[in-house]
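Page 37, top half.
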Amino acid sequence: MSKPNTFTDPYYTYQIFHKSENFKRWFEDNTISFKKYRKSWEDRPIHQNPGEFPLNLNIEITTKCNLACTFCYHRELNKEQKIHMNMDMFKKIIDEAKKYNLPAVNLNGLGEPITHPKLVEMIEYCRDAGIEDIMFHTNGTVMTEKLAKKLINSGLTQIIFSLDTTDKKIYEEMRVGANFEKVNKNVERFIEIRNALKSKMPMVRTTMVLTDKTINQVKDFKKKWEKLSDNISAQDLVYSFEDEVKYEVSTNKDTITDGMKGLNWKSGENSYYKVDRKKIIETEKKTKEFFRCAYLYQSIKIHSDGLIDPCTPRNAPSIGKVETGIKNAWKSKKIKEMRTAHENGKWYTIEECRKCDHPYIAIFKKNNKTVKI
Protein backbone atom coordinates (compact mmCIF):
# COMPACT_ATOMS: atom_id res chain seq x y z
CA MET A 1 0.00 0.00 0.00
CA SER A 2 1.38 3.41 -0.94
CA LYS A 3 2.10 5.99 1.72
CA PRO A 4 -0.18 9.04 2.03
CA ASN A 5 0.78 12.39 0.56
CA THR A 6 2.68 14.59 2.97
CA PHE A 7 3.87 18.20 2.94
CA THR A 8 6.95 19.57 4.62
CA ASP A 9 8.70 22.91 5.07
CA PRO A 10 12.53 22.76 5.10
CA TYR A 11 12.63 26.16 6.81
CA TYR A 12 10.06 25.56 9.58
CA THR A 13 8.46 28.73 10.88
CA TYR A 14 10.97 31.11 9.27
CA GLN A 15 10.41 33.69 6.57
CA ILE A 16 13.24 35.42 4.71
CA PHE A 17 12.39 38.84 3.32
CA HIS A 18 15.74 40.27 2.31
CA LYS A 19 19.02 38.98 0.87
CA SER A 20 21.78 41.44 0.09
CA GLU A 21 23.96 41.29 -3.00
CA ASN A 22 26.80 40.31 -0.68
CA PHE A 23 24.76 37.35 0.56
CA LYS A 24 23.85 36.27 -2.98
CA ARG A 25 27.50 36.44 -4.08
CA TRP A 26 28.57 34.44 -1.03
CA PHE A 27 26.18 31.68 -2.00
CA GLU A 28 26.98 31.76 -5.72
CA ASP A 29 30.77 31.84 -5.20
CA ASN A 30 30.75 29.15 -2.53
CA THR A 31 32.12 25.63 -2.85
CA ILE A 32 30.45 22.73 -4.62
CA SER A 33 30.18 20.92 -1.28
CA PHE A 34 28.44 23.92 0.31
CA LYS A 35 25.88 24.07 -2.49
CA LYS A 36 25.35 20.32 -2.21
CA TYR A 37 24.65 20.73 1.50
CA ARG A 38 22.09 23.47 0.86
CA LYS A 39 20.38 21.35 -1.79
CA SER A 40 20.34 18.38 0.58
CA TRP A 41 18.71 20.63 3.19
CA GLU A 42 15.64 20.82 0.98
CA ASP A 43 15.88 17.38 -0.62
CA ARG A 44 16.22 15.21 2.47
CA PRO A 45 12.82 16.00 4.01
CA ILE A 46 11.13 15.97 0.60
CA HIS A 47 12.47 12.51 -0.18
CA GLN A 48 12.23 11.25 3.42
CA ASN A 49 15.96 10.57 3.48
CA PRO A 50 17.84 11.21 6.76
CA GLY A 51 21.18 10.22 5.28
CA GLU A 52 24.04 8.71 7.24
CA PHE A 53 24.50 11.69 9.56
CA PRO A 54 22.77 15.04 10.23
CA LEU A 55 23.48 17.99 7.95
CA ASN A 56 23.57 20.32 10.94
CA LEU A 57 24.18 20.08 14.67
CA ASN A 58 22.40 22.53 16.95
CA ILE A 59 24.89 22.56 19.78
CA GLU A 60 23.69 24.26 22.93
CA ILE A 61 27.07 25.49 24.15
CA THR A 62 25.45 27.26 27.08
CA THR A 63 22.16 27.60 28.93
CA LYS A 64 23.29 30.82 30.60
CA CYS A 65 21.75 34.07 29.43
CA ASN A 66 21.86 37.70 30.53
CA LEU A 67 18.26 38.48 29.53
CA ALA A 68 14.79 37.29 30.57
CA CYS A 69 12.86 37.47 27.30
CA THR A 70 9.10 37.16 27.70
CA PHE A 71 8.73 34.68 24.82
CA CYS A 72 11.51 32.32 25.99
CA TYR A 73 11.29 29.62 28.65
CA HIS A 74 14.90 30.23 29.76
CA ARG A 75 13.42 32.16 32.68
CA GLU A 76 11.92 28.86 33.89
CA LEU A 77 15.35 27.24 34.36
CA ASN A 78 16.77 26.84 37.84
CA LYS A 79 20.35 27.69 38.78
CA GLU A 80 21.61 24.11 38.32
CA GLN A 81 20.24 24.02 34.76
CA LYS A 82 22.26 27.06 33.68
CA ILE A 83 25.62 25.67 32.59
CA HIS A 84 28.34 26.02 29.95
CA MET A 85 29.29 23.01 27.83
CA ASN A 86 32.88 22.01 28.61
CA MET A 87 35.47 22.17 25.85
CA ASP A 88 36.33 18.46 25.99
CA MET A 89 32.73 17.52 25.26
CA PHE A 90 32.55 20.07 22.45
CA LYS A 91 35.69 18.67 20.84
CA LYS A 92 34.32 15.15 21.10
CA ILE A 93 31.19 16.27 19.23
CA ILE A 94 33.15 17.97 16.46
CA ASP A 95 35.66 15.12 16.19
CA GLU A 96 32.85 12.66 15.48
CA ALA A 97 31.14 15.08 13.10
CA LYS A 98 34.39 15.51 11.15
CA LYS A 99 34.36 11.80 10.26
CA TYR A 100 31.08 12.33 8.40
CA ASN A 101 32.03 15.66 6.78
CA LEU A 102 29.42 17.59 8.70
CA PRO A 103 28.64 20.76 6.71
CA ALA A 104 27.01 22.98 9.38
CA VAL A 105 26.79 23.83 13.08
CA ASN A 106 24.59 26.28 14.94
CA LEU A 107 26.04 27.05 18.38
CA ASN A 108 22.67 27.76 19.91
CA GLY A 109 20.21 26.65 22.50
CA LEU A 110 18.51 28.31 25.44
CA GLY A 111 21.50 30.44 26.37
CA GLU A 112 23.40 33.42 24.96
CA PRO A 113 26.50 32.01 23.16
CA ILE A 114 28.60 35.12 23.78
CA THR A 115 28.50 34.40 27.52
CA HIS A 116 30.61 31.26 26.87
CA PRO A 117 34.31 32.10 27.45
CA LYS A 118 35.41 29.56 24.82
CA LEU A 119 33.09 30.71 22.01
CA VAL A 120 35.82 31.91 19.65
CA GLU A 121 37.91 28.80 20.32
CA MET A 122 34.87 26.63 19.56
CA ILE A 123 34.28 28.40 16.24
CA GLU A 124 37.94 27.99 15.30
CA TYR A 125 37.78 24.29 16.18
CA CYS A 126 34.80 23.90 13.85
CA ARG A 127 36.62 25.78 11.08
CA ASP A 128 39.71 23.61 11.44
CA ALA A 129 37.49 20.50 11.25
CA GLY A 130 36.35 21.61 7.79
CA ILE A 131 32.81 22.65 8.74
CA GLU A 132 31.71 25.13 6.08
CA ASP A 133 28.73 26.86 7.68
CA ILE A 134 29.29 27.99 11.30
CA MET A 135 26.72 30.23 12.92
CA PHE A 136 25.08 31.37 16.13
CA HIS A 137 22.23 33.61 17.27
CA THR A 138 22.89 36.42 19.73
CA ASN A 139 20.91 39.12 21.49
CA GLY A 140 23.82 41.48 20.77
CA THR A 141 23.85 43.03 24.23
CA VAL A 142 27.45 42.26 25.14
CA MET A 143 29.14 42.59 21.75
CA THR A 144 32.38 44.59 21.97
CA GLU A 145 34.80 45.79 19.28
CA LYS A 146 37.47 43.41 20.56
CA LEU A 147 35.12 40.43 20.39
CA ALA A 148 33.79 41.54 17.00
CA LYS A 149 37.29 41.44 15.50
CA LYS A 150 37.93 37.99 16.96
CA LEU A 151 34.64 36.65 15.60
CA ILE A 152 35.25 38.14 12.16
CA ASN A 153 38.64 36.38 12.00
CA SER A 154 37.48 33.11 13.57
CA GLY A 155 35.88 31.36 10.60
CA LEU A 156 32.33 32.26 11.60
CA THR A 157 30.16 32.31 8.47
CA GLN A 158 26.89 33.68 9.85
CA ILE A 159 25.90 35.71 12.88
CA ILE A 160 22.21 36.23 13.60
CA PHE A 161 21.24 39.24 15.71
CA SER A 162 17.81 38.90 17.35
CA LEU A 163 16.35 42.41 17.35
CA ASP A 164 12.58 41.92 16.94
CA THR A 165 11.31 45.45 16.41
CA THR A 166 12.10 49.08 15.70
CA ASP A 167 10.00 50.16 18.68
CA LYS A 168 12.09 50.83 21.79
CA LYS A 169 9.23 50.33 24.26
CA ILE A 170 8.08 47.01 22.79
CA TYR A 171 11.67 45.78 22.44
CA GLU A 172 12.58 46.47 26.05
CA GLU A 173 9.32 44.98 27.28
CA MET A 174 10.02 41.77 25.36
CA ARG A 175 13.79 41.52 25.89
CA VAL A 176 13.90 42.25 29.58
CA GLY A 177 17.32 43.55 30.61
CA ALA A 178 18.36 44.88 27.18
CA ASN A 179 18.82 48.48 26.09
CA PHE A 180 17.39 49.20 22.65
CA GLU A 181 19.83 51.94 21.62
CA LYS A 182 22.90 50.07 22.83
CA VAL A 183 22.01 46.82 21.09
CA ASN A 184 21.23 48.50 17.77
CA LYS A 185 24.50 50.43 18.00
CA ASN A 186 26.37 47.18 18.74
CA VAL A 187 25.00 45.57 15.58
CA GLU A 188 25.73 48.60 13.43
CA ARG A 189 29.27 48.77 14.82
CA PHE A 190 29.84 45.06 14.18
CA ILE A 191 28.96 45.59 10.51
CA GLU A 192 31.20 48.66 10.33
CA ILE A 193 34.15 46.70 11.74
CA ARG A 194 33.62 43.79 9.36
CA ASN A 195 33.49 46.14 6.38
CA ALA A 196 36.53 48.11 7.57
CA LEU A 197 38.48 44.84 7.76
CA LYS A 198 37.38 44.20 4.16
CA SER A 199 35.95 40.85 5.20
CA LYS A 200 32.94 39.30 3.51
CA MET A 201 32.36 37.11 6.51
CA PRO A 202 30.43 36.55 8.62
CA MET A 203 27.13 37.16 6.89
CA VAL A 204 25.02 39.32 9.20
CA ARG A 205 21.36 38.44 9.63
CA THR A 206 18.93 40.58 11.59
CA THR A 207 15.80 38.78 12.70
CA MET A 208 12.44 39.27 14.38
CA VAL A 209 10.13 37.15 16.50
CA LEU A 210 6.68 37.81 15.06
CA THR A 211 4.04 38.47 17.70
CA ASP A 212 0.81 40.42 17.81
CA LYS A 213 2.96 43.37 18.98
CA THR A 214 5.65 43.21 16.30
CA ILE A 215 3.78 42.07 13.20
CA ASN A 216 2.92 45.64 12.20
CA GLN A 217 6.57 46.74 12.40
CA VAL A 218 7.91 44.39 9.73
CA LYS A 219 8.14 47.05 7.03
CA ASP A 220 9.93 49.46 9.35
CA PHE A 221 12.30 46.69 10.45
CA LYS A 222 13.14 45.85 6.85
CA LYS A 223 13.61 49.51 5.96
CA LYS A 224 16.01 50.00 8.87
CA TRP A 225 18.23 46.98 8.18
CA GLU A 226 18.10 46.23 4.44
CA LYS A 227 21.02 48.56 3.65
CA LEU A 228 23.13 47.17 6.49
CA SER A 229 22.51 43.46 7.03
CA ASP A 230 22.95 40.65 4.52
CA ASN A 231 19.81 38.80 5.43
CA ILE A 232 16.59 39.76 7.20
CA SER A 233 14.31 37.09 8.60
CA ALA A 234 11.33 36.56 10.85
CA GLN A 235 10.16 33.65 12.95
CA ASP A 236 6.59 33.00 13.96
CA LEU A 237 6.22 33.00 17.70
CA VAL A 238 6.33 29.45 19.01
CA TYR A 239 4.46 29.24 22.27
CA SER A 240 2.94 26.69 24.63
CA PHE A 241 -0.34 26.53 26.49
CA GLU A 242 -1.19 26.23 30.17
CA ASP A 243 -4.83 25.36 29.58
CA GLU A 244 -5.71 21.72 29.12
CA VAL A 245 -6.93 20.76 25.67
CA LYS A 246 -8.15 17.19 25.58
CA TYR A 247 -8.64 15.17 22.45
CA GLU A 248 -8.49 11.57 21.36
CA VAL A 249 -5.83 10.19 19.04
CA SER A 250 -6.64 6.93 17.27
CA THR A 251 -3.78 4.58 16.46
CA ASN A 252 -3.80 1.05 15.14
CA LYS A 253 -3.59 -0.26 18.69
CA ASP A 254 -5.64 1.99 20.91
CA THR A 255 -7.09 5.41 21.56
CA ILE A 256 -5.15 7.97 23.56
CA THR A 257 -6.83 10.73 25.52
CA ASP A 258 -4.32 13.52 25.69
CA GLY A 259 -4.05 17.02 27.09
CA MET A 260 -1.67 19.93 27.00
CA LYS A 261 -1.02 20.08 30.74
CA GLY A 262 2.55 19.21 31.53
CA LEU A 263 3.85 22.03 29.35
CA ASN A 264 4.32 24.18 32.43
CA TRP A 265 5.48 27.24 30.51
CA LYS A 266 3.38 29.78 28.70
CA SER A 267 4.80 32.57 26.62
CA GLY A 268 4.40 36.08 27.92
CA GLU A 269 3.62 37.08 24.34
CA ASN A 270 0.79 36.27 21.95
CA SER A 271 1.01 34.95 18.40
CA TYR A 272 -0.44 37.12 15.66
CA TYR A 273 -2.81 34.27 14.83
CA LYS A 274 -4.61 31.69 16.93
CA VAL A 275 -4.19 27.96 16.54
CA ASP A 276 -6.88 25.46 17.50
CA ARG A 277 -4.91 22.28 18.20
CA LYS A 278 -7.92 20.04 18.70
CA LYS A 279 -9.45 21.12 15.39
CA ILE A 280 -6.16 20.59 13.58
CA ILE A 281 -5.82 17.04 14.94
CA GLU A 282 -9.33 16.21 13.79
CA THR A 283 -8.64 17.69 10.37
CA GLU A 284 -5.41 15.73 10.03
CA LYS A 285 -7.29 12.47 10.59
CA LYS A 286 -9.47 13.20 7.56
CA THR A 287 -7.13 15.00 5.18
CA LYS A 288 -5.35 13.43 2.22
CA GLU A 289 -2.17 15.49 2.69
CA PHE A 290 -0.41 15.23 6.04
CA PHE A 291 2.25 17.21 7.80
CA ARG A 292 5.79 15.82 7.98
CA CYS A 293 8.52 17.57 10.00
CA ALA A 294 11.67 18.46 8.03
CA TYR A 295 13.82 18.69 11.14
CA LEU A 296 13.87 14.89 11.55
CA TYR A 297 15.89 14.59 8.32
CA GLN A 298 18.22 17.59 8.70
CA SER A 299 19.37 18.37 12.23
CA ILE A 300 19.83 17.14 15.73
CA LYS A 301 20.10 19.00 19.04
CA ILE A 302 22.86 18.46 21.59
CA HIS A 303 22.34 19.90 25.06
CA SER A 304 25.01 21.51 27.21
CA ASP A 305 25.13 18.39 29.40
CA GLY A 306 25.62 16.06 26.43
CA LEU A 307 22.09 14.71 26.04
CA ILE A 308 20.90 14.44 22.44
CA ASP A 309 17.38 15.26 21.19
CA PRO A 310 15.96 14.74 17.70
CA CYS A 311 14.74 18.35 17.59
CA THR A 312 14.71 21.61 19.54
CA PRO A 313 11.31 21.95 21.31
CA ARG A 314 11.34 21.72 25.09
CA ASN A 315 9.35 18.50 25.20
CA ALA A 316 11.59 16.65 22.70
CA PRO A 317 12.66 13.16 23.86
CA SER A 318 16.23 12.19 24.63
CA ILE A 319 17.57 9.77 22.02
CA GLY A 320 21.17 9.43 23.16
CA LYS A 321 24.28 10.96 24.65
CA VAL A 322 27.46 12.42 23.21
CA GLU A 323 29.47 9.69 24.92
CA THR A 324 27.55 6.96 23.07
CA GLY A 325 27.72 8.72 19.70
CA ILE A 326 25.79 11.18 17.58
CA LYS A 327 25.43 8.71 14.71
CA ASN A 328 23.91 6.16 17.10
CA ALA A 329 21.36 8.77 18.17
CA TRP A 330 20.62 9.63 14.51
CA LYS A 331 19.90 5.94 13.87
CA SER A 332 18.11 5.33 17.19
CA LYS A 333 14.85 3.43 17.48
CA LYS A 334 13.00 6.47 18.83
CA ILE A 335 13.86 8.82 15.99
CA LYS A 336 13.05 6.10 13.44
CA GLU A 337 9.63 5.71 15.06
CA MET A 338 9.10 9.45 14.79
CA ARG A 339 10.07 9.54 11.12
CA THR A 340 7.85 6.56 10.30
CA ALA A 341 4.85 8.15 12.02
CA HIS A 342 5.35 11.37 10.06
CA GLU A 343 5.80 9.51 6.78
CA ASN A 344 2.57 7.59 7.38
CA GLY A 345 0.56 10.71 8.16
CA LYS A 346 0.39 9.85 11.86
CA TRP A 347 2.68 12.47 13.42
CA TYR A 348 0.10 13.14 16.15
CA THR A 349 0.50 9.57 17.49
CA ILE A 350 3.99 10.57 18.73
CA GLU A 351 3.53 12.22 22.12
CA GLU A 352 6.39 14.70 21.75
CA CYS A 353 5.24 15.77 18.28
CA ARG A 354 1.64 16.09 19.48
CA LYS A 355 2.82 18.53 22.14
CA CYS A 356 5.10 20.47 19.80
CA ASP A 357 4.03 23.82 18.34
CA HIS A 358 5.56 23.37 14.89
CA PRO A 359 3.03 20.93 13.34
CA TYR A 360 0.09 23.12 14.32
CA ILE A 361 1.69 26.33 13.07
CA ALA A 362 2.77 24.71 9.78
CA ILE A 363 -0.67 23.20 9.17
CA PHE A 364 -2.47 26.40 10.15
CA LYS A 365 -0.33 28.48 7.79
CA LYS A 366 -0.87 26.03 4.96
CA ASN A 367 -4.65 26.04 5.32
CA ASN A 368 -5.28 29.67 6.23
CA LYS A 369 -4.45 33.09 4.91
CA THR A 370 -1.59 34.39 7.01
CA VAL A 371 0.61 37.43 6.84
CA LYS A 372 3.15 37.15 4.03
CA ILE A 373 6.13 39.41 4.33
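Page 37, bottom half:
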Amino acid sequence: MTPHKVLDTLSVLYTLIGDAISDGGIVNVNGIGQFEAKKKAERITANPSNGKRYLIPPKLTPIYKPAQIWKDYLKKIDEND
Protein backbone atom coordinates (compact mmCIF):
# COMPACT_ATOMS: atom_id res chain seq x y z
CA MET A 1 0.00 0.00 0.00
CA THR A 2 1.13 3.52 -0.62
CA PRO A 3 1.66 5.80 2.40
CA HIS A 4 -1.36 7.85 1.34
CA LYS A 5 -3.63 4.76 1.30
CA VAL A 6 -2.30 3.69 4.71
CA LEU A 7 -3.12 7.11 6.16
CA ASP A 8 -6.61 7.02 4.64
CA THR A 9 -7.24 3.52 5.99
CA LEU A 10 -6.07 4.44 9.49
CA SER A 11 -8.17 7.60 9.42
CA VAL A 12 -11.28 5.60 8.59
CA LEU A 13 -10.43 3.05 11.30
CA TYR A 14 -9.97 5.77 13.93
CA THR A 15 -13.26 7.38 12.91
CA LEU A 16 -15.17 4.10 13.09
CA ILE A 17 -13.72 3.17 16.48
CA GLY A 18 -14.31 6.69 17.82
CA ASP A 19 -17.93 6.73 16.66
CA ALA A 20 -18.61 3.29 18.12
CA ILE A 21 -17.12 3.98 21.56
CA SER A 22 -18.66 7.45 21.81
CA ASP A 23 -22.07 5.77 21.53
CA GLY A 24 -21.19 3.55 24.51
CA GLY A 25 -20.06 0.54 22.51
CA ILE A 26 -17.03 -1.68 22.86
CA VAL A 27 -14.86 -2.45 19.84
CA ASN A 28 -12.78 -5.64 19.76
CA VAL A 29 -10.11 -5.88 17.08
CA ASN A 30 -8.63 -9.38 16.86
CA GLY A 31 -4.92 -9.36 17.56
CA ILE A 32 -4.96 -5.68 18.57
CA GLY A 33 -7.18 -5.31 21.61
CA GLN A 34 -10.34 -3.75 22.95
CA PHE A 35 -11.42 -0.12 22.80
CA GLU A 36 -14.13 1.39 24.99
CA ALA A 37 -15.08 4.68 26.58
CA LYS A 38 -15.43 5.23 30.32
CA LYS A 39 -17.46 8.12 31.62
CA LYS A 40 -15.67 10.30 34.16
CA ALA A 41 -18.02 11.99 36.58
CA GLU A 42 -18.04 15.73 37.08
CA ARG A 43 -15.92 16.98 39.95
CA ILE A 44 -14.92 20.15 41.72
CA THR A 45 -11.29 21.19 41.83
CA ALA A 46 -9.53 24.17 43.35
CA ASN A 47 -6.74 26.34 41.99
CA PRO A 48 -3.94 26.06 44.58
CA SER A 49 -2.61 29.57 43.98
CA ASN A 50 -5.85 31.49 44.56
CA GLY A 51 -8.19 28.91 46.09
CA LYS A 52 -10.86 29.51 43.47
CA ARG A 53 -13.04 26.44 42.85
CA TYR A 54 -13.92 25.13 39.40
CA LEU A 55 -16.47 22.59 38.21
CA ILE A 56 -15.00 20.12 35.73
CA PRO A 57 -17.81 18.68 33.57
CA PRO A 58 -18.24 14.94 32.93
CA LYS A 59 -16.41 13.52 29.94
CA LEU A 60 -15.79 10.31 28.06
CA THR A 61 -12.25 8.94 28.23
CA PRO A 62 -11.09 6.34 25.68
CA ILE A 63 -9.67 3.16 27.21
CA TYR A 64 -7.50 0.62 25.39
CA LYS A 65 -6.93 -2.91 26.65
CA PRO A 66 -4.26 -4.70 24.61
CA ALA A 67 -4.78 -8.24 23.33
CA GLN A 68 -2.99 -11.05 25.15
CA ILE A 69 -0.60 -11.50 22.20
CA TRP A 70 0.71 -7.93 22.76
CA LYS A 71 1.06 -8.48 26.51
CA ASP A 72 3.06 -11.66 25.89
CA TYR A 73 5.22 -9.94 23.27
CA LEU A 74 6.04 -7.00 25.55
CA LYS A 75 6.78 -9.35 28.43
CA LYS A 76 9.16 -11.32 26.18
CA ILE A 77 10.95 -8.12 25.13
CA ASP A 78 11.25 -7.02 28.75
CA GLU A 79 12.76 -10.37 29.76
CA ASN A 80 15.39 -10.16 26.99
CA ASP A 81 16.70 -6.77 28.18
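Margin note: The chain has two helices and five strands.
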